[in-house]
Amino acid sequence: MKMRADQTGDRGLPMPLWLQGALETAQAAIISALAVIAPIIAVWATAGFQNSSFDVLARLAGQSWLLVHGVPLELSAAGSDAAGNGESGVLSLVPLGLTLLPFLLAWRAGRRLARASYTDQLWQALLGSWVVYAAFGTATGFVCRTPDVGINPWFAMLIPLIPYALGMVIGARREAGSWSRLIGVDAVDWISRTSQHSRWAGSYLASAGKAGFVATVSALALAAVLLAVDLFIHWNLVVAVYEALDAGAVGGAALTIAQLGFLPNLAVFALAWTSGAGFAMGIGSQVGPLGTAVGPLPSIPVLAAIPSGPLDYAFVALIVPVLAGVLAGWWFLREGENHFDEWLSIKVRARWFTATVSTLVLGVLAGLAAGLLSFGLAWLARGSAGIGRLTDIGPDPFWTAVWLAAEVAVGVVIGYAAGPWLEREQAASVEDAELVSRA
Predict the structure, then answer these.
(1) Pairing between strand 291-293 and 280-281?
(2) pLDDT tens digit string along 167-183?
(3) Contact 291/420 with Cβ under 8 angstroms?
(4) Residue 12, Cβ neighbours under 10 Å: how many?
(5) Residues 200/357, Cβ–Cβ less than 8 Å
(6) Which residue intervals of 159-247 are DSSP H helices?
(7) Residues 248-289: tens digit of each pLDDT
(8) Which of 271, 301, 369, 409 lies 20 to 30 Å from 332, alpha-carbon distance?
(9) CA–CA separation, 361 vs 353, rounded Å?
(10) What is the per-residue DSSP string for 272-334?
């Protein structure tokens, strides 16, 4: 991007990269803020708020913007007793679907800045953009705090940087094509200077970690399919809650957008449900394939689809992470990086022993990787709704990781052991297809 000296088309001085980063970030912050303000204005236009004063709605929009970025809000409600005691809590349930908006805007900004920067100059653009975004979050937190909604200024300054900086770095890496072009460090050259054994160990551990990633993504995709099936089965209950709320067209649309924002959270809830760990919908509640016990829930349509009653065959859902592990084991076989098995075969001649040990070690490593990833997903998806029973919503990260790691490990062992047979079946199918085409 260049600054023109005049309107003749002659180029003037180049725009400083820090200024270009600041402008890109200001644009992303404004767009994400408008996306939050739009449904609030729509509800206000239909007299959907009890207090419709401008300052209240502006603070509500700022608080929503901060929550979308992961900033917890400290809520307090005035008590009804003579002493004036109040109840307080933290609203920390983040709509991950809406968090994708600033992430994608940052991804676009990162690509544009990487295109305009040399390798050793990108830090200037990133620094300028991150300073502006931190200032935007700090100002929003300072202006939008109220006696009922407290906002930690440090959280408002630093936490919005996490999704934004992550999206910007990924976008810049996507545009550069490699880390060496992005930051000037050639990882391939650094790895080539290490010993052969170190390279083999590194490629083996990296492939095992990738297998855990494949298993986690596969399990999450299958859990999302089960979630869609569950919503389809209980669609009549969901519609009944919509009709009971009678929020009108605009109110119903705003409610639907809010629920779509929590769709990734619900997919992670479904992943925890299929693992057997389940998830909570309030203090003392549990929703899982082995049993469901929940108390009164708010009138949110999507919550009507929570499986309840006798679930005689729900335990079959536990096979979902195992199937994902089978896919990961097969993928690892096709990757061809089982250097631990090769090293063990050189040291020990008993093939039955080396094959068994190497496959079990692979299952443990891939299961640990999947467990760590599921721990992070569960931690991101869970949270508190503020005040009352619903201060514990979502899966327990530790038990979700333990259950999923164990099931994925079993699936990886099965998939890697059955991989050669699957490869032969695939090769036979290809040969049959070629014969048919020739005939």
Answers:
(1) unpaired
(2) 998 988 888 776 666 66
(3) no
(4) 10
(5) no
(6) 161-176, 179-183, 187-192, 196-233, 235-245
(7) 788 888 888 889 999 999 999 999 999 999 899 888 888 888
(8) 271
(9) 12
(10) HHHHT--BEESTT-EEETTEEE-----S-GGGGGS--S--TTGGGGGHHHHHHHHHHHHHHHH
